Amino acid sequence: MNASLPLARPDLLRTLARIGDRWLAADDGRSFPVRNPASGDGLAEVPLMGAAETRRAIAAAETALAAWRQTTAKERAALLMRLQARLLAHQDDLARLITAESGKPLAEARGEVAYAASFFEWFAEEGKRAYGESIPSPTRDKRLITIRQPVGVVAAITPWNFPLAMIARKVAPALAAGCTTVVKPAEQTPLIAAIAVRLLHEAGVPRAALQLLPGQGGTVGAALTSDARINGVVFTGSTETAQIIARAMAANMAPGTPLIAETGGLNAMIVDSTALPEQAVRDIVASSFRSAGQRCSALRCLYVQEDIAPHVIAMIKGAMDELRVGDPWNLSTDVGPVIDDEARQGIDAYAEANAARVLHRVWAPRQGHFIAPLLMKVNGINDLDREVFGPVLHVATFRADQLERVITDINARG
Are strands 144-146 and 153-157 parallel, antiparallel or unpaired? Predict the structure, then answer.
């Protein structure tokens, strides 16, 4: 671990994987680096787990399932509420690690910790309300009732853009329902995942009920999603990866094995002449550029009615000029770096290929993986062949009599 990372409780962090009741390295000793996207500095080396370790983790989770599923919903809720309290108690340390590992500005990182804690609180209560049903019987001598049971071992594959909150959103409901879980965090952000697992164990979740496997999607992820002992998969990431997971599950798992996938898309906003420009611009800039545009909910394509377009676009440019792009440790920073050099190069290449469409671009540091927020002119959403996962906003204009067509075009892109 990089000693320069200021954690009040550095003992919380483990730069290892978790299988059964042990923290351990990869069988072959291989590891991979975790880097700070703002500076490129190394933070830690983490085990590069493989298929064999994944199979052992699934076996450990399967063994732990029998005891965990027998706990009551009330008992499980109490553990999750203890974890919620621990997350908030360590909010500063967790926020610092999110900032160091993902480049998210510190103020946003603190918000993510509270967001993550809320999932444990929510599902602690929801787990106690997993009611069955009473069904009217066709005969007088029978009663028909249904009860809800844990599906079994759940694989949770989490992203780097909300590295703590998305673990919470996947692990909390699984544990609340009585399922055991194997977590495969994003390669870029395994350290915050290790702290989350450590805190869950401190809260009382049995060691083998929650496994942690840092590694590559092509090995750990592929092994998790093609093993018949996995009874459900929850995933956040690209649509293409979700399709690969669905095919692997269909080929290897029982029919009906649930896949819950949150994927990307092209989010659009329509601003017509009745809108209040100040409110619209505030929300446009926040949605487009918060977290450096690295959010599934980020605005990608803005439609502005022609009558007000010059004024609104000028206001957007002015608001972009007020954004502070830079050091995520600075509380005044609005936009931090993108996650890694691959992301930076991809967005730079897109901007270069579409240079004629650029309406406005602000300053960004040259060191680290920073991208200057961009405003680009398009004819409409059909000009976009994919989601650009970064601080890039596309803007189109429309006449009042074209509103229905605009809505149709947006809906057609799913």
Answer: unpaired
pLDDT mean values, one per 10 residues, the chain (414 residues): 67 91 96 94 95 97 96 96 96 95 95 97 95 92 93 97 97 97 97 95 94 96 97 95 96 96 93 96 97 95 97 98 95 95 95 96 92 96 94 97 96 86
Query: Buried (b) or exposed (e) across 59-83, using 16+ Cβ within 10 A?
Result: bbbbebbeebbebebeebbebbebb
DSSP state of 134: E
Q: Which long-range contacts (CB under 8 A, 24 or more apart) does 243-252 make?
A: 245/157, 245/221, 248/222, 249/225, 251/226, 252/225, 252/226, 252/227, 252/228
Predicted TM-score (pTM) above 0.85: yes
Tell me the catalytic residues: 262, 296
How many other C-beta atoms are found inside a 10 Å radius of the C-beta of residue 129? 7
Bridge partners of 45? 33
| 251-to-169, 255, 257, 259, 361 alpha-carbon distances in Å | 27, 9, 11, 13, 46
**How many whole angstroms separate alpha carbon 285 and alpha carbon 279?**
10
On whether the CB atoms of residues 299 and 410 are closer than 8 A, the answer is no
CB 175 within 8 A of CB 80: yes
| Structure tokens, 181 | 């879980």
Give the span between the Cα atoms of 164 and 121, in whole angstroms. Answer: 15
DSSP secondary structure of 187-256: TT-HHHHHHHHHHHHHHT--GGGEEE--B-IIIIIHHHTT-TT--EEEEES-HHHHHHHHHHHHHHS-TT
CA 289 to each of CA 149, 282, 388, 390: distance values in angstroms, whole numbers, following the listed order: 42, 11, 12, 8
Q: Which residues pair with 233 in a beta bridge?
A: 155, 259
Q: What are phi and psi of 389, to 5 degrees?
A: -90, 80
Q: Which of 222, 219, 210, 148 is nearest to 183 (CA)?
A: 210
Query: Strands 153-157 and 180-184: what pairing?
Result: parallel
**pLDDT at site 3:** 45
Q: Are strands 267-271 and 22-24 parallel, antiparallel or unpaired?
A: unpaired
Burial 92-113 (b: 16+ CB within 10 A, else e): bbbbbbbbbbbbbbbebbbbbb
- pLDDT value of residue 11: 85
Q: For the chain, what is the radius of gyration of the CA atoms? A: 23
> Residue 143: how many CB atoms within 10 A of its CB?
10
Compute the distance between CA of residue 332 and CA of residue 112 in angstroms, rounded to an integer: 17
- Considering only CA atoms, which of 369, 410, 393, 399 is closest in space to residue 36? 369
